[in-house]
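User: Earlier you gave me the apo prediction for this protein. Now I'd like the version with S-adenosylmethionine bound, so I can compare the two side by side. Same sequence as before, with the ligand SMILES added.
Assistant: Got it. Here's the input I'm using:
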Amino acid sequence: MTSSQRASRIEIRRRSREGGPFARLAEDVRRGLTKTRKELPPKYFYDARGAELFEQISELPEYYLTRTEHALLAQIADPVVASFRPTTLVEFGSGSSRKTRILLDAIARAGLLDLYVPIDVSEEMLRQTAHALGENYPGLRIHGVIGDFEEHVEALPEGGPRLIIFLGSTIGNLTPDEATGFLRNVARVLAPQDRFLLGTDLVKEVDVLERAYNDTAGVTATFNRNILSVINQRLNAHFDLDRFDHSAFYNREESRIEMHLVARESHRVAIGAIDLTVDFSKGESIRTEISCKYTQAMVEAMLEKAGLRMTRWDTDTNHFFALSLSAALH
Ligand SMILES: C[S@@+](CC[C@H](N)C(=O)[O-])C[C@H]1O[C@@H](n2cnc3c(N)ncnc32)[C@H](O)[C@@H]1O
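And here is the structure of the complex with S-adenosylmethionine:
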């Protein structure tokens, strides 16, 4: 076979409303920062720098999530692939697709690998990843989609069987209602021969949870403040990052980690592009991320409510993280 016959075919499309995945930034910032309890959607962390910072977080000693999920994937990849023989892998919030390689390898070992569809808001990371995978998986077709998975679940390729994956406990960044909405969309597009693999972080000792979001190297704090840089750059805002402290704590009632930026002193910030000034009092915070923690029963109930039936549940010996496989109920 010549190298041109073996080369991967990479195609990247924008699937968000006009202006790309950051098109709603202005609207979301206005809505979030004029609320009594200020908040911002976590998808806006992920410009090129935010995506790179997340990669650094995933390697921190305190951040058990990535390495635990990685080990679980390595354990279950072959049996999961053997159970329904997928040819297409679709991934929401794919990031660097580092762990995805475990599944791509397993599908390739079974002689089935045809198409990979990574979907992410982070354009630079998606392009970089697609090209690296193209080099490493000759013959693989890659259809990258730059878009918001809360808007574009319907944009899935035909054919299959398809393995649809949502890793990294990114589902935990959605409120229960948002998660149900997203999973209902997944259930709607899941054909009987397809399967959905979901990574969820589990309820555990508060200390372990809080350490994961308060690393001693301060990378998570830098990642947290990056959302203000994104707003500064894209909306001509004047946030001074040094005037905000990183705070992350477990909210037991809501079963979630909350990440906030807390104003060190009272001050006012102008956001030029939307003609808005925002007042902060000392100690007032912006909630920038939630990360929900689940039990097996909670995951099962969440899937069932959305029209999905869990067919497999795998967790590590510490019960820190879980992977669940499900099929459509219909
Ligand atoms: C927590 S990271 C997980 C990355 C990777 N899946 C992993 O497990 O290491 C979340 C990823 O989802 C992407 N993301 C967040 N919100 C998104 C949205 N609404 N639509 C598409 N991608 C999103 C981010 O750009 C980032 O790559």
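For your comparison, keep in mind: The pocket of S-adenosylmethionine is lined by residues 43, 46, 51, 54, 58, 66, 93-95, 99, 120-122, 148-150, 167-168, 170 (CB under 6 Å).
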